[in-house]
Write a structure and sequence with these properties.
Elements: E1 7-13, H1 14-19, E2 24-26, H2 38-52, E3 60-70, E4 76-81, H3 83-100, H4 105-115, E5 116-117, E6 120-124, E7 126-127, H5 133-140, H6 154-165, H7 171-178, E8 181-188, H8 194-203, H9 210-219, H10 224-242, H11 246-258, H12 269-277, H13 283-304, H14 312-322, H15 329-340, H16 346-365, H17 374-382, H18 385-394, H19 399-408, H20 414-422, E9 430-434, H21 457-466, E10 473-477, H22 478-484, H23 489-497, H24 502-507, H25 515-532, E11 546-548, E12 566-571, E13 574-576, H26 581-595, H27 597-607, E14 611-612, E15 621-625, E16 628-631, H28 636-650, E17 656-660, H29 662-671
Parallel strand pairs: 2-4, 2-7, 3-8
Antiparallel strand pairs: 1-8, 3-4, 5-6, 9-10, 11-17, 12-13, 12-17, 14-16, 15-16
Helix pairs in contact: 2-6, 2-7, 3-4, 3-6, 3-7, 9-12, 10-13, 11-12, 11-15, 11-17, 13-15, 14-16, 15-16, 15-17, 17-18, 19-25, 26-27, 26-28, 27-28
């Protein structure tokens, strides 16, 4: 066997590796600043709790740590890759050590061996970049005092999070989990090319996609026979049903399941959400869940190809839904499955599909986005059909807005709209026809008398502005459409009279064609439009500008513009001038401390904060009453999560909305969400 000459790689226990040796773990100057946020810390703590529950044979692998060593009187282990994980572990160990130092001196001493340099009890074993070393040591060695003021680093943020989550009673459990962490320690010798090895670890090959990570996560830890069973019985059928759309299938399945938007930009949002929904997958539960995944994948195949649905009416409406893409598939998946299982009637399913078409089409007509809508509709449906209808009505543009938009705006999805207006089932053999051509020749005429070349510039501009509107469009048989191309209206009129499409027989009654005729036809068809795509439910305010608090966008850290993200917040009918999440976090907790204190106590008790009976560490605090404090030192994503969770706890989340400012809208676009 030939061994490597420049690299040593050994699987080690992480805590024992950190405790052993008399070296200092050094973060070199060229490394980036410490970046882990509370979301990553929360996942790490969750993994540690999970492995602590398992038997002694089960360990948790945290990856590889790449380092080089320096010799001399004060040896150093220089971190090339892994500083984010090691730094975070040190902060967790520090929080644990400070929690138990007065109640369990033995455990505190073991933890101190991880943190403190063996030859200098005033220094930490990990030494970050010199620009942040003092801040790190102040946190880990608990040298902060009340005069430090507000927190000024990510070290403080994450330490405070761990401190808030770990009680003295849970400390032994967390310590057990920490001692079950393992990694591969890769140590470079003198002749090794550190940069090449670093790039090989981090950049070789294409990163795993969300559905591949889910696949690995599902199978990991199973026996070989169990893996073969799950692969053949469940996973391969899911892949067969969803094909190239498997990643989107998982995203939409999770939106349906959680009633929350699943963000895919800048990270592994689908995979991370999957792990939150399915934190433990023992083989019995896995079979049950996988059977459901397989069934939903089969339904997804029908949505992708509605012609495979035997029921003609449902097939037709699924095809109509597909006109608008997959934005509402999470809701359709659930409704279709309920119909398949007999939980709802066919008429209920068709009515839901009709309502969704109305919502999507009307919003498109007036230029509104259909993104980030379906999660709130999934939540509403869980409260019953009436709640769903109300939720759809609330975000469906009014008849007045639709009529105005149809007069002057380009008609979206013209084939679908004109086909339904004409009562034509399918567009086979039909073309979308512009009565007035978008680019007429000089000889074109609307009345057979005056050619286009003699129209004034204002007249020409007026015609062009209306060319793509509803009033100027129709459907025409292909053989007639070829002859009608660029023909003057008198010639087209004769062709329209020979058509079997009812819309064209009406057109054939016109003597001439111009802006007045287009406007009149837009008004007539606009009325039929709002009748076919009727706004469901009672007439409610058209409040598209308001976003339910549960659908507000999460942003880690404090991105530029956060102080002006919202114009205002609507809280149960009250108008609050609240521009940012930090202000909202404070106001919601104070308001519910007065109005619904049991909900605050219950939420904070389950989540280890953010309400405490004492200021247990230095940082940003606000007083709720003489004996209770609200910790204000979280990042924006954690604060928003806490607001959402508390409002759900109090049962009023559906009554709170945010209105994004132009800054907030810009932030949404930059975030890719």
């Amino acid at each position: 066997m030939v061994s490597a000459t420049n690299v040593d790689a050994t699987a080690v226990n992480t805590i024992r590796w950190l405790s052993a040796g008399d070296w200092t773990v050094v973060v070199p100057v060229y490394q980036r600043q410490y970046r882990w946020d509370i979301g990553a810390c929360e996942q790490l703590l969750s993994d540690i709790r999970a492995v602590a529950d398992l038997d002694d044979r089960q360990m948790h692998f945290i990856g590889s740590i790449l380092s080089s060593t320096t010799a001399g009187e004060h040896p150093e282990l220089v971190l090339i890759d892994g500083q984010q994980r090691i730094t975070t572990l040190m902060l967790l160990v520090a929080a644990l050590q400070h929690t138990v130092r007065d109640t369990d001196p033995g455990m505190a001493a073991e933890l101190a061996r991880v943190l403190v340099h063996p030859h200098d009890d005033g220094a930490t074993k990990l030494r970050p970049h010199r620009a942040w070393a003092d801040v790190f040591e102040r946190v880990v060695l608990d040298r902060r005092d009340a005069d430090d003021g507000t927190r000024d680093s990510r070290f403080d943020d994450n330490y405070a999070f761990f401190r808030s989550q770990i009680s003295a009673d849970e400390a032994p459990h967390i310590w057990r989990g920490l001692q079950k962490l393992e990694h591969v320690a890769i140590t470079l010798r003198t002749g090794a090319n550190a940069q090449q090895i670093f790039e090989s670890l981090n950049s070789t090959g294409e990163p795993l996609r969300d559905h591949e990570l889910i696949h690995n996560y599902v199978l990991m830890g199973l026996s070989h026979d169990e893996q073969r069973e799950i692969e053949s019985e469940y996973w391969l059928p899911i892949e067969l049903s969803t094909s190239d759309a498997i990643g989107e299938f998982w995203r939409q399945y999770l939106i349906m399941t959680t009633g929350r938007e699943v963000v895919v930009a800048r990270g592994r949002g689908v995979y991370d959400t999957f792990r939150q929904v399915f934190p433990r997958l023992e083989i019995g539960d896995l079979r049950r869940h996988a059977a459901q995944w397989r069934e939903y994948a089969e339904i997804y195949r029908v949505l992708l190809d509605p012609s495979t649905e035997p029921d003609a009416a449902i097939s037709r409406h699924l095809g109509y839904i597909g006109t608008f893409g997959s934005a509402v598939y999470p809701l359709v998946l659930r409704a279709y499955r309920d119909w398949r299982h007999g939980a709802i009637e066919k008429t209920d399913l068709v009515r839901t599909l009709e309502h969704l078409q109305t919502l999507l089409l009307r919003r498109t007509v007036v230029g509104l986005s259909n993104d980030r809508l379906v999660a709130r509709l999934c939540r509403a449906r869980e409260d019953g059909e009436n709640a769903l209808v109300t939720a759809i009505s609330r975000i469906t543009p009014s008849d007045e807005r639709i009529r105005a938009a149809l007069k002057y705006s380009e008609l979206p999805h013209p084939g679908y709209v004109l086909g339904r207006l004409a009562g034509v089932d399918g567009l086979t053999g039909l073309d979308v026809e512009h009565v007035f051509p978008p680019a007429p020749s000089d000889a074109w005429s609307g009345d057979g008398v005056r050619p286009w070349s003699e129209y004034s510039e204002d007249e020409q501009n007026s015609h062009r502005a209306l060319a793509a509107t509803l009033g100027n469009l129709t459907l025409l048989e292909e053989e007639l459409s070829v002859r009608a191309f660029d023909a003057s209206f008198p010639e087209k009129r004769a062709l329209y009279g020979r058509s079997d499409v009812a819309l064209n027989l009406e057109l054939a009654q016109h003597e001439a064609w111009g802006t007045a005729a287009i406007a009149a036809r837009s008004a007539s068809l606009g009325q039929r439009f709002v009748e076919i795509w009727a706004r469901p439910g009672a007439t409610l305010i058209d409040d598209d500008g308001l976003t339910p608090i549960l659908d507000a966008v999460h942003r880690r850290g404090w991105p530029r513009g956060w102080e002006r993200e919202w114009d205002y917040v609507e809280y149960r009918g009250e108008h609050w001038e609240v521009p940012d999440v930090k202000y909202l976090f404070n106001r919601i907790f104070k308001r519910l401390w007065a109005d619904a204190r049991p909900a605050v106590v219950a939420y904070s008790g389950r989540h280890g904060g953010p309400v405490y009976t004492a200021q247990s560490w230095n940082g940003q605090w606000d007083r709720l009453d003489d004996d209770t404090w609200l910790y204000m030192g979280w990042d924006s994503s954690y604060m928003l999560t806490a607001v959402q969770g508390l409002l759900e706890e109090a049962g009023i989340a559906s009554e709170v909305f945010v209105k994004y400012s132009y800054i907030g809208v810009a932030m949404n676009k930059v975030s890719g969400r």
